[in-house]
Design brief:
There is one protein chain. The protein is of the alpha/beta class. The chain has six helices and six strands, in the order H-E-H-E-H-E-H-H-E-E-E-H. The N and C termini lie close together (about 10 Å).
Length: about 140
């Protein structure tokens, strides 16, 4: 599934399950949400803070512990702040949902560049488990 399809599924689930959930997105996902018309007051783009989406989402989750917080991260962004996985896991936010778009792409202003060291065999799900995320799923397609 591509980034737009994944973001459409996330937006639909948010709309149906937790419409007031803060949505923090970055890079490719940010543009997909723009294209899908997800432009409400509870959406925050982590740009030019590349790599900071999970930390920004964690801050919101800690300040609003009863709110569901949705973070839609990119593989290149997460690689820039890989330690944030441990920070999030150690903080144990109760309603923190962290999606990662593993599209092997680094957004760079005008063009998308291949992400160094983030080939498709780079297993971010295993990294999240090792960091201490209590629930990890890999979703490759919608059924």
């Amino acid at each position: 599934m591509n980034v737009r399809e994944a973001c459409a599924a996330i937006a639909a689930a948010r709309r149906n399950l937790c419409p007031q959930a803060p949505l923090v997105s970055t890079m490719s996902a940010m543009h997909a949400f723009d294209d899908l018309g997800v432009n409400d007051d509870m959406r925050l783009d982590a740009v030019p803070l590349m790599g900071g989406a999970s930390g920004l989402g964690l801050g919101i989750a800690l300040m609003q512990p009863h709110a569901t917080v949705i973070v839609v991260d990119g593989d290149a962004s997460l690689l820039m702040e890989l330690g944030s996985l441990v920070t999030v896991a150690n903080a144990k936010p109760k309603h923190f949902v962290h999606f990662l778009m593993h599209n092997n792409t680094q957004f760079s202003s005008i063009v998308n560049l291949p992400t160094p060291a983030a080939e498709h065999d780079c297993n971010f799900a295993d990294m999240a488990r090792a960091a201490g995320y209590p629930h990890v799923m890999q979703i490759d397609q919608l059924h």
